Amino acid sequence: MQKPLAYRMRPTSIETIVGQQHLVGPGKIIYRMVQAKMLSSMILYGPPGIGKTSIASAIAGSTKYAFRALNAAVNTKKELQIVAEEAKMSGTVILLLDEIHRLDKTKQDFLLPHLESGRIILIGATTENPYINISPAIRSRTQIFELEPLAAADIKTALKRALTDKENGLGHYSVTLTPQALAHYASATNGDLRSALNGLELAVLSTAPDPKTKTITIDLPIAEETLQKKAFSHDADGDAHYDVISAFQKSIRGSDTDAALHYMARLVEAGELVSLMRRLLVIAYEDIGMANLPACARTVNAVLAAEKLGLPEARIPLADAVIELCLSPKSNSGISAIDAALTDVQTGHSGEIPKNLKDAHYKGAEALGRGVDYQYPHNFKGDFVVQQYLPNNLKKKQYYEPKTNGKYEQAFKIQYEKLKKLLK
């Protein structure tokens, strides 16, 4: 049985990886490891289908080390022992361990000494947050890299490559992929390249060629059917997806409940549950934020409920959240504050941390004056004491500009201004 297109098109070198350029692009961390042949064990985490296995495969192909793939939930300790024996014989083995968050203690204890010795280079793959779901013992011996959903342009590049690749792809078929269909595969899969490739392969293998030209034409209706997702419109550039997301956020920001529900309905009808939930979380904290923090928390709960329910029932808690966010007071003071602070840091306006705030938990810190004059607020009345926290060159800086659009931020404003006055 032939392996799926997504499997066959996995990259064999670091240069052929699609996306994840913040890690594998020239000069970036994983690229440097491969170039220097100084690999360390790592954990790659992010949504499904965005390249975790591809990166592991490409690292192995670029370094010429033996490559083995196991699943932490399914494969046994004995199978890990086989990999370890191979590593002893050949020198180094790259082990891709999928679902590493499900690694039990017995397998973990077996692996640890092999990671220490460097005989096994572990590349763990997970969709779960490793800082929460992976044991400290494994985390301490690995570098953790977060992967990002692929951009539509990255997916288009990979699909075009698959259509022309005669060895592993679909290059031995005569295929015409319309711009509308290409845009739909690229945008409707939410950055999941595996889904896009497998949808394309199904379309090619299940569509009869034209009797005269012998060409298989994949148009938008076929793309919709093979992905089981409807397109927003026949937009050749694939902008409609982003237009709907933009209109959705701007309608909530503008407090138009009916418009927001309309654009939500478009997303639901197109099966864009992941995009809808992610955008709703962004909106809650970006546009409502300090004005109604309980609404933000309730939005998180609505998203969690939607994830458990799936469509079509997921529309119910999400609709409740959309209505509440529309009718809630608005404030962007949180995002404005952190962006102002980031601007200072990114432009070199950081300054020296006051000595009394520096770490004092090591021998010799006191001799350096670190932490010596720190005053512990809980030792004072009201759990507050006046002391300087910002660096000297920024001690008068104010990043947070509170608003008064909701009762919560009104109260925060009074407290913030009171404390700011005392600290000054």
Q: Would you write up a description of this structure?
A:
Belongs to the AAA ATPase family. RarA/MGS1/WRNIP1 subfamily. InterPro entries: AAA+_ATPase, AAA_assoc_2, AAA_ATPase_RarA/MGS1/WRNIP1, ATPase_AAA_core, DNA_pol3_clamp-load_cplx_C, MgsA_C, P-loop_NTPase. This is Replication-associated recombination protein A. The protein has 19 helices and seven strands. It has 424 residues and is α/β, with parallel strands linked by helices. It folds into four domains: 5-146, P-loop containing nucleotide triphosphate hydrolases (Rossmann fold); 152-227, Orthogonal Bundle (Helicase, Ruva Protein, domain 3), CATH 1.10.8.60; 240-327, Zinc Finger, Delta Prime, domain 3, CATH 1.20.272; 352-423, DNA polymerase III clamp loader subunits, C-terminal domain (post-AAA+ oligomerization domain-like). β3, α6 (105-117) and β4 (120-126) form a beta-alpha-beta unit.
What is the secondary structure topology, with strand pairs?
Blueprint: H1 5-8, H2 21-24, H3 29-36, E1 42-45, H4 52-63, E2 66-71, H5 77-90, E3 93-98, H6 105-117, E4 120-126, H7 130-133, H8 136-139, E5 143-146, H9 152-164, E6 175-177, H10 179-188, H11 193-206, E7 216-218, H12 220-227, H13 240-253, H14 257-269, H15 273-288, H16 293-309, H17 315-327, H18 333-346, H19 407-423
Parallel strand pairs: 1-4, 1-5, 2-3, 3-4, 6-7
Helix pairs in contact: 5-6, 9-10, 9-11, 10-12, 11-12, 13-14, 13-15, 14-17, 15-16, 15-17, 16-17
Domain AAA+ ATPase: 38-150
Keywords: ATP-binding, Nucleotide-binding
Protein name: Replication-associated recombination protein A
